[in-house]
Design brief:
- This protein has 13 helices and 15 strands.
- It has 416 residues and is of the alpha/beta class.
- The strands form three sheets. It has an eight-stranded mixed sheet, with helices on both faces. The protein has a four-stranded mixed sheet with strand order 1-2-3-14. Strands 12-13-15 form a three-stranded antiparallel sheet.
- Helix 3 packs across helix 9 and helix 5 (168-177) runs parallel beside helix 6.
- It binds pyridoxal-5'-phosphate.
Length: 416
Amino acid sequence: MRVLPYHLPLVAVRGQGCRVWDADDHQYIDLNMAYGPLIFGHCPPAVIRAVQRQISNFGSQLGFPTEITTRVAEKLKRLFPSIELLRFANSGTEALASTARLARVFTGRDKIIQFEGHYHGWSEAVFTRYHAPLELLEGRDFGPAFPGTPGMMHGGPRDSLVVRWNNIDALARCLEAHPGQVAAIFMEPVMGNAGVIPPQPGYLEQARMLAHDHGALLVFDEVITGLRVAPGGAQELYGVEPDITVVSKSIGGGYPVAAFGASREIMEPIVNGSLFHGGVYSGNAVVMAATEAVLDQVLARGDAIYDRMREVSDRLADGFGEILSQAGVPHVMQHVGPMLSLFLMRDGVHPLREYRDVREHCAFDKYITLQHAMQRVGVYFHPNQFEPMFLSAAHGPEDIDAVLERFEQVVACTDL
Ligand SMILES: Cc1ncc(COP(=O)(O)O)c(C=O)c1O
C-alpha cells in the first residue's frame, strides 16, 4: 500500500501535527494520517509524555500483569459499553484472527460471513479477495470467498462466505442457505476499505436481528471506526451493539495496539483457558502508555475534539464538492466524521452503496492523476480511491483552507 506502481515516490523523514516532510525536505499536509491511527496528529505531546514517562521510570515490557493494562482496559470499556472483558493484541489482523476462533469456539460452528469490499486483516483465518474483479461476482449476491492471496490453500477462507454489503435480503438468503453453520458475521460497520460507504439506514439493526435469529454472533470490526467516527465508534454513532468488538488504529495514536472484547459469557473460553490466545508483546507497556494517553484525552474532552474534527471534515468535504461542481467534474463525496472519500466518477453520478458501485463507476485513473498533482503541490492522500482520507484533531480550518486553495488550482489545470 505504501509503494504501489502508481505511487509518486515519497520517503518520509518526519511528521508533526498534520504535516509530514520527505527526504528532500518537501512539506505535505497529510490527509492519510498513517491510514487512520493518528487521531491527534503526528507527535502528539500528551502521547510522547506518557511514553517517555513509562520507558524512563517503569520499563517497556514487564512480562507480568500490570496495572496500566487494567486501567487501559477499564477506560476502553467506558467508551465501548458492549465490552465486558477484552484482550489486547498488536495489530488488527491478530485481533480479528483471534475473534474468528473465539466465535467458532463459542458457537461450535465453522462459517464466517464477510462482505464484498471489507478487509479484516491478512491472516489465514479471514483474509479473502475483498476487491474481487466484477466478473467473478457476476450473478451472485453471496457465495464462497476467494482466497485473499496465493498460498491460502487451507485457511479460513474455505469457510468464509461473502455477501453484498448494504443488501439485507442477500444477507438473509445467505443465512437461510447455511442453517446452523454460521458462527459470525464480520463487518466494518462503516465500510472504509472500498472508500467510505456508510450503512444504509436500519441496515446495522437488521443485520444484528438476522444474526441473532440464526444463532450467529455479530462482529463489528471497528479497527478504523473506533474512536474515529465517535469516541465509542460506529456502535455509539448508530446505536447498534455488536456481540464482539475489535478496535485498533486510533486507540493507540500511532502505537501498535489492538483489542477484541465482548460479554463475559462470550469471552469465557479464553478466561477459563480452554481457548488459547497469546502474544509476548500483547499489552506491551509502551503501547499501553500511549493508548492510555489517547483514551484520557478522549474521555476528558471528547465532545470538543469530535466537534472540531466534524467541523474540519465538513469544511473539506464541502470545499472539494463545490470546487469539483464548479469545474463540472462528476464526483460523489461521502464522509462519516473525519473519514472521507472523494470519488471521481467515470460515467455520471451514481449512488455508491457497495463495493461493486465503486468498482464499476469510479474513475481510478483520474483519481491517480489528481493525487499526483496534489502531491506535487504539497498535499498527500493515498492514490487509490478505495483508501479513505483521514483527518485528525491536529487539522485546523486554516490547514483545510490551504488544501482547498491548492485543490482549486490543481482542478483548474488538470484533465479530470
Ligand atoms: C477494517 C480493518 N480491519 C483490520 C485491519 C488490519 O489491521 P492491521 O493492518 O493492523 O493488521 C485493517 C487495516 O487497515 C482495517 O482497515
